[in-house]
Amino acid sequence: MDSLKKDGNRIWISVSPYLVIDSDNRPNFVVFQIDDITRQKKADISSRVPERSFDSIFENSTDGVAINEQVGNFLEANQILCDKLGYSRDELLNKTATEFIILKSSKVFAEKVRELYRNGQAAVQVMAICKSGAILPVELSMWLIEYKGKQAIFSIVADLTKRKSRTNAKV
């Protein structure tokens, strides 16, 4: 609960009542222990704000967004990524990131993953394979993050189809 101090500042407190009994085992009085838990409460609130912000960014991004284990297994994927690759979310979560990289792009992808582990971030353009068999040019921007207490890879997957079309049209 929150409380108002003499100086006008609001603090969060925890109140713990303790019943004191007399020698005849009858209730005599109650002692209340009051602890200032403002610091813990603020930490709890601030830890929830980034989580909500993260969820909002994740679901409202115009690009594909994914979180993968270090070995590549998908932990999370937004709907945009699922739609671009042609998979349901459940199907995608049963795959690894490397399953979508065409062989021609796999060497440069592997080099960029090593760079990711050295520097904490990396970006690479690769060709991805969709469920339909179509090839999708994408740019992967990757960062090492902590997710649910474990190190993971956060990726933004930008579809380069329109950019490549504009570049080819100018040539």
Could you explain how this protein is built, in words?
The protein contains five helices and eight strands; from the N terminus they run βββαββαααβββα. With 171 residues, it is α+β, with helices and mostly antiparallel strands. The strands form two sheets. The chain has a five-stranded antiparallel β-sheet with strand order 5-4-8-7-6. Strands 1-2-3 form a three-stranded antiparallel β-sheet. Strand 7 (135-147) and strand 8 (150-159) form a beta hairpin. The longest helix is centred in the first third of the chain and has 23 residues, at 38-60. It has helices at residues 38-60, 79-85, 89-92, 103-119, 161-170, and strands at residues 2-4, 10-21, 27-36, 64-69, 74-77, 121-129, 135-147, 150-159. The protein has two domains: 1-60, no CATH class; 62-170, Beta-Lactamase (2-Layer Sandwich).
Report the end-to-end length measured between terminal Cα atoms: 67 Å
Q: What's the arrangement of strands in the largest beta sheet?
A: 5-4-8-7-6
The helix/strand class is: alpha+beta
| CATH homologous superfamily label of the largest domain | PAS domain
CATH fold naming of the largest domain: Beta-Lactamase
Q: Can you write the helix and strand succession as a string?
A: EEEHEEHHHEEEH
Low-confidence stretches: none
What tags apply to this protein structure?
171 residues; alpha+beta; Beta-Lactamase; 2 domains; five-stranded antiparallel sheet; three-stranded antiparallel sheet; 5 helices; 8 strands
